[in-house]
Amino acid sequence: MANTTGSSHPNEREDIGARLKEAREYLGLSQQEVATALNLPRTAVSMMESGQRGVESLELKALAKLYQRPVAYFTGEDEEVVRVWVWVRTWPCWPSRSRSSPTKIGGNSFVLVSS
Questions:
Q1: Going by C-beta distance under 8 Å and a sequence separation of 6 or more, which residues neighbour residue 4?
Q2: pLDDT confidence of residue 84
Q3: What is the pTM of this model?
Q4: Which of 11, 67, 80, 107 has the greatest number of CB atoms lying within 10 Å of its CB?
Q5: Burial of 115 from C-beta contacts in 10 A (0-12 / 13-18 / 19+)
Q6: Residue 29 CB coordination number (10 Å)
Q7: Are the C-beta atoms of residues 35 and 42 closer than 8 Å to each other?
Q8: How many CB atoms are located within 10 Å of the residue 80 CB?
Q9: Residues of the chain with pLDDT under 70
Q10: How far is it, in rounded angstroms, from Cα 24 to Cα 75?
């Protein structure tokens, strides 16, 4: 099985791990709940989040589905997806005068607000 955390970027494992942890915590899931859903030991989830263990491609696909985010969010391959997701997630409220129609990104609908 191919590993998604190649050695071309020294911090790639840590970056993916940080995004995995952020997504898990955002959904209020414990490491044990994620491990059970993926049929992995809890320590494997912990090691992936800390960058001590690589994430296999099928594991990443399953995590993306569980966390309701596109795989590109975790790999950083599409930085625009990452920026929009973080921006939408952190926006405190939607001003009614600047709403646009929902935009689809990775199967999820977002309302993008222009500044």
A1: 16, 54, 55, 56, 57, 60, 75
A2: 59
A3: 0.63
A4: 67
A5: exposed
A6: 16
A7: yes
A8: 9
A9: 1-10, 78-115
A10: 15
Question: Can you state the angle between helices 42-50 and 31-38, rounded to 10 degrees?
Answer: 110
Contacts by 85-88 with C-beta closer than 8 Å and gap 24+? Answer: 85/110, 88/112
Pair 50, 17: CB distance under 8 Å: yes
In this structure, the dihedral spanned by the alpha carbons of residues 80, 60, 20 and 54, taken in order and rounded to 10 degrees, is: -110
CB 34 within 8 A of CB 63: yes
Residue 83 CB partners (closer than 8 Å, separation 6+): none
Domains and CATH numbers, the chain: 12-111 (1.10.260.40)
